[in-house]
Amino acid sequence: MLNRADNDFLTRSSKDTPMGELLRRFWMPALLSEELPERDGPPRKVKILGEDLLTFRDTNGRVGVVQPHCPHRGANLFHGRNEECGLRCAYHGWKFDVDGNCVDLPAAPPGSAHKDTVKLLSYPAREWADIIWIYMGPSEHVPELPQLEMGLVPASHRYVSKKWQDCNWVQSLEGAIDTAHFSFLHAVLTKDEREALAIYSRSAALGDQSRPDDRVRWVRNDPRPKFAILGHDAGLVIGGARRTDGPDLYWRIAQFLMPNHAYAPVAFPGEVYYGQTWLPVSDTDCWIYTYSWRPDRPFTDAERAQFDNGFGVHSQVDDNYMPVRNIRNDYLIDRTVQKTTSFTGILGVSEQDAAIQDSQGPIQDRTREHLGPTDLGIVEFRKMIMSAARALQRGEAPKAVSGKRYAVRSGGWVAAPDRDLAAVMTERFGHPHGYVGHEHGLGD
Amino acid sequence: MLNRADNDFLTRSSKDTPMGELLRRFWMPALLSEELPERDGPPRKVKILGEDLLTFRDTNGRVGVVQPHCPHRGANLFHGRNEECGLRCAYHGWKFDVDGNCVDLPAAPPGSAHKDTVKLLSYPAREWADIIWIYMGPSEHVPELPQLEMGLVPASHRYVSKKWQDCNWVQSLEGAIDTAHFSFLHAVLTKDEREALAIYSRSAALGDQSRPDDRVRWVRNDPRPKFAILGHDAGLVIGGARRTDGPDLYWRIAQFLMPNHAYAPVAFPGEVYYGQTWLPVSDTDCWIYTYSWRPDRPFTDAERAQFDNGFGVHSQVDDNYMPVRNIRNDYLIDRTVQKTTSFTGILGVSEQDAAIQDSQGPIQDRTREHLGPTDLGIVEFRKMIMSAARALQRGEAPKAVSGKRYAVRSGGWVAAPDRDLAAVMTERFGHPHGYVGHEHGLGD
Amino acid sequence: MLNRADNDFLTRSSKDTPMGELLRRFWMPALLSEELPERDGPPRKVKILGEDLLTFRDTNGRVGVVQPHCPHRGANLFHGRNEECGLRCAYHGWKFDVDGNCVDLPAAPPGSAHKDTVKLLSYPAREWADIIWIYMGPSEHVPELPQLEMGLVPASHRYVSKKWQDCNWVQSLEGAIDTAHFSFLHAVLTKDEREALAIYSRSAALGDQSRPDDRVRWVRNDPRPKFAILGHDAGLVIGGARRTDGPDLYWRIAQFLMPNHAYAPVAFPGEVYYGQTWLPVSDTDCWIYTYSWRPDRPFTDAERAQFDNGFGVHSQVDDNYMPVRNIRNDYLIDRTVQKTTSFTGILGVSEQDAAIQDSQGPIQDRTREHLGPTDLGIVEFRKMIMSAARALQRGEAPKAVSGKRYAVRSGGWVAAPDRDLAAVMTERFGHPHGYVGHEHGLGD
Q1: E strands along C206-284, which residues?
Q2: Spatial contact of B83 and A364, defined as CB atoms under 8 Å apart
Q3: What does the pLDDT look like over C206-261, one tens digit per residue?
Q4: Which intervals hold domain Rieske (chains A, B, C) (predicted)?
Q5: What distance in Å separates the CA atoms of residue B163 and residue B161, rounded to the nearest whole number?
Q6: Quick one: which H or E segment has residue B338?
Q7: C-beta separation of C212 from C382 below 8 A
Q8: CA-nearest residue of chain A to C187?
Q9: Which stretches within A208-333 are classed as H helix?
């Protein structure tokens, strides 16, 4: 439970808010690369952390992310011409490059100094792992790009999507690191394991579909996983252990990575890894970038088609990345299915998550919540991000974390009952924090 | 005319407003019974007096009206599972019964005291007369259900509907007790009495359609009824007397019943009685529950079909109880019909009322009105309800009115010119306040 | 660049704002005459300078513009009956004439003085030049109607239209007197003069389509016209001179007329004249009345059909005067056309203007603009209108300008390089301010 002030502190991220300042010290996903497919193509509007921005890809393929209004008379450069390495305003022809420099001022007298003094606000942008990332903080503090493993594997080994969500980003991220809810929200009702498998496979994150029945059953049967947390430079390892059929424990281990990434807890060795990154649009909606990757091999066309259709944590979306099942159509809930087959009557793990997270309200009111032992990951996440924001308020910049510290994995494992989380992580990943950077030449 | 402060006082009913506190001392209609048809069926969202609530019918048929957000993490129980005498949250399985008690907490350790301390806000609900009523006030002050006669007759003898209205509830109720406007708003233009009858019958509240012509004419010919008011424990008798063809007076007598009911002034003996109850949703919209009843016999299927189609004070509505003719389509006004046939060009008495009431604005600005002698009923209504709200502000609870005091009728009568309202009521109903409780075994 | 306070001062025009007070000292276009086609026809809602009003044409053809709510109970007279020289409220029959006098009070006792004391707010209205004008200022200061030349020519010689625009009126008017943007916003890309002509003729204001190629080329080739301004009693002459193929200068000369009119700078002798008048609806939208006229001859049916379809400064609109290409559909921008054919990819001069003006924001933020020499007309316009509003704040009414001072023209001319603006105007129109009132019997 938070008091009103802390709830605002945690969830508000427009300019000049403490959390907004903190987020602006990190790289944010602004667009999928595929959203700016063409050099000199149409510019595209985006809204990020409450700021209206304009993006374009120039003649050389570079991406610009700029304030949209021309400094001359305030016309929106969205109507501008993207040509010859710059965006030219449709009103009077002023032209700016991807860095916001004024490169042509046709109405100014030759020799005018205006061109050198006029500047369009521009944020640094980098294209990496099929995503366009931008940095909106002070220029003397640009951090390294987070070396998420999905960007370290060949493009053929990853799949990246995005979806819109109609609520504050924090409660959505909290849903992702809360692995206790799998016993309910994503549960299937049927006792027929084969049917459960078919249904669950439609909506779950399983790479190997031949024998996930044990895990489905273990998750359903134990609604009280024991939680353990390990902090590291880039975030938190969040483990939840459930009973199995014998003395061993079934661990589902997620990762939170500062400040807005979370990794799913499902993958056994040889299965698909999933992660998500949140981009606050305003305080009451966000984009969720979702990625799957396999360190071991490329995805097949069939697997990609399955993802396209909304498999696993990926959502089924329309051409504008809006989920087909969303708050405006009650997620196409089917109350008969809810009675007979699935816990929610809503199709898709991603859609089940969206429904329950949106339902917490545009911004969850945490002054009325009652947290318990299974919410430990959420508590630790809040501590970590709020104390970083408070430190920044005091003038202490976020630790300059090496980008490679983000090269971690998360997933599932069955371990002897006496192993602690660090031991389980080491068994599963060879490292207590799941670090795999060395496999990609990043050293230890 | 009211000053700004009094207009606000009269019309605002969210929590912590004086009028809101007063209304919360009475039973409010929350839903039609038919809106929760099924045990363990889907929960339904409602908004009442500005509060978002959730309703559900449990395994035993009991209805719960609860705060919609789960105390655990704030997920909306709308997505929950209605099963085995309780509503179970879809996020982590917390479960609550119709009284808001926590009956299952699967994620809490066995023996945890949490279950006994966690409580979901719940309002008492009763099902009576095809309506689900709720009480939102202090638990030590629950009043008796108002014994409206439509609830005392067999179900076969009543017909209940509801409709949405896009304005503050007070101006709508004021329209219902203002019987002067029948000479205009609901008037027909044609001089052909048979045609007038046909049109008027489509839209009027007449049981006997063989000779209402006199009344239509009397109402049209006398736009200045003389008003008289009689107060009683449960409300006001509001009589308006018009000239007839001879020396007698044609009385149309409505009832206002505290705090949000009104009865129509039309029924002659042997005709259908009509009443309405207002439910403020927010301060700028409301539900209107409308009921017809006959003490003497069941409604026929043909009569019910007529009501279904928007006869009399009932509105023609869609599956969501939204009027087919509403503010968003200008009530399908036909300006040619307005020139030639009906005063408004709008079809239906209910729709004519809605149009003119909505047109007063989301909340009527009473600082600019000019009331006259024919507005006496409205003036007395405001006095009664505002003084009750002021008394409650001073700590004086509303009088504990016996529910049976609501067992009254209203209607029309033709009386000698020397009779006062009490005498006319006694002639017409056998009692100066129209009390008929003794006919239903409620005593005197 | 303006500071925040001045930007508000310039752009806000609701009641009790300084600019609102200034505008209320002038006649405002409320409707096209064609919008109230019928005597005793349906009343029509309008919103002007933030005020909701109701208009109707009475039995004698007179137009009333009144406050919409009946003084009795606040019902909207929109539902009223327009009959026998007055509008009768549908609720209780109160009736008002076009001057707001109460002419019938059926519910009041005979002899009641109420009728003489009740008054409906009404603004004086005049019908002139196919437009209904209203005056919303103090009754002791009613000015003369501005004698715009389009109203002085026979009806056959003019064409009047209107269109909705989704931004503050000031930035839209500023776009109209900014003739520098023709080198960009309305430019065509093709080098083929014949194709340019065809495209440009679709969208430009040219009467003689046989050889405008020179002008198109001159405008395209010189993006830095030299500006000169001449003030006069009714407004400003705003000239911009561009290079031609020889030593002469090509002048494009607009007019701003107080407080909300602008004339286009294109017409050579024998061509069509264009003007526009802005009507603020709220501070973030407006109606633009657009008119073409020929002093010399009637428009042909073919020319009128061309205007109907959105030729020149006229927009292609639907039955509600909403532009077919508007902010909600991104003006049907075609990015391929923008690459190959026209500077914007948007069809129509009027639509290109709307797109760029809307894009400046609901109210342009002038605190961030950077004006230059080609923005001189805009600077002088702001000085003139803001100083008039400040004078009115000090109690100095706007100069009582004779209506005939609005009888001016604007247009284009090719002049020797040594001529100043007054000389060019005299060469082109016979008068340094373009005055032509004497041609219409208004004297000098």
Answers
A1: 226-232, 235-243, 249-257, 261-263, 273-282
A2: no
A3: 444 555 568 888 998 999 999 999 999 999 999 999 999 999 999 999 999 999 99
A4: 27-134
A5: 7
A6: helix B335-340
A7: no
A8: A90
A9: 213-221, 301-308
Residues on chain C touching B333 (C-beta within 8 angstroms) = 79
Burial of C247 (0-12, 13-18, 19+ CB in 10 A): exposed
* Cα B271–chain centre separation: 20
Token pair for B106: 């699967």
Give the span between the Cα atoms of A203 and A197, in whole angstroms: 10
Q: What are the CA-CA distances from residue B402 to residues B145, B159, B235, B295, B409 (Å)?
A: 9, 25, 12, 21, 16
Q: Is C224 on the interface with A (CB under 8 A)?
A: yes
Q: Which residue of C has its CA nearest to A76?
A: C359
Nearest chain B residue (CA) to C93:
B184
Q: Does C42 touch chain B (CB under 8 A)?
A: yes
What are the tens digits of pLDDT across the range A337-368?
A: 999 888 999 999 999 999 999 999 999 999 99
CA distance B131 to B135: 13
Phi and psi torsions of A16, nearest 5°: 75, 10
Per-residue pLDDT tens for A114-133? 788 899 999 999 999 999 99
- In Å, how far is C31's CA from the nearest CA of chain B? 20
Where b means 16+ CB within 10 Å and e means fewer, C211-233 reads ebeebbebbbebbbbbbbbbebe
Helices (H), A269-420: 301-308, 335-340, 349-359, 376-393
Q: Which C positions 164-183 lie with beta carbon below 8 A of chain A?
A: 171, 180-181, 183
Question: Among C400, C124, C391, C146, which residue's Cα sits nearest to residue C277?
Answer: C146
Query: Are B94 and A185 spatial neighbours (Cβ–Cβ below 8 Å)?
Result: no
Q: Do A356 and B75 touch (CB under 8 A)?
A: yes
Q: Show residues of chain B in contact with A334, CB under 8 Å.
A: none
User: Does B92 contact A344 at a Cβ distance shorter than 8 Å?
Assistant: no
Quickly tell me which residue has 């090496």 as its tokens: A402
What stretch of H or E contains B51?
Answer: strand B51-57
Q: Does residue C344 belong to the interface with chain A, where contact is any CB pair within 8 Å?
A: yes
> Alpha-carbon distance B32 to B359, whole Å?
27
Total-model pTM? 0.94
- Domains (range + CATH), chain A: 27-139 (2.102.10.10), 149-440 (3.90.380)
Residue C198's pLDDT band (cuts 50, 70, 90): low
DSSP letter string, B275-304: EEEEEEEETTEEEEEEEEE-SSSPPPHHHH
Cβ-based burial of A270 (10 A; exposed 0-12, middle 13-18, buried ≥19): exposed
Q: Is residue C161 within 8 Å of C306, Cβ to Cβ?
A: no
For A79, which of C224, C359, C371 is closest by C-beta distance? C359
Residues of A in contact with B81 (CB under 8 A): 338, 343
Question: Using an 8 Å Cβ cutoff, are C161 and C315 in contact?
Answer: yes
Cβ contacts (< 8 Å) between B78 and chain A: which residues? Answer: 359
Interface membership of A336 toward B (CB under 8 Å): no
Subunits adjacent to chain A (3 or more Cβ pairs under 8 Å): B, C
Please tell me which residue of chain C has the smallest CA distance to A84. Answer: C339
The closest of C348, C367, C283, C346 to C23, measured between CA atoms, is: C283
- Distance (Å, rounded) from C-alpha C70 to C-alpha C78? 10
Helices marked H in A292-441: 301-308, 335-340, 349-359, 376-393, 421-429
pLDDT digits (tens, 9 = 90+) for C280-313: 999 999 999 999 999 999 999 999 999 999 988 9
Of C41, C73, C93, the CB nearest to B369: C73
Is residue B11 within 8 angstroms of chain C, CB to CB?
A: no
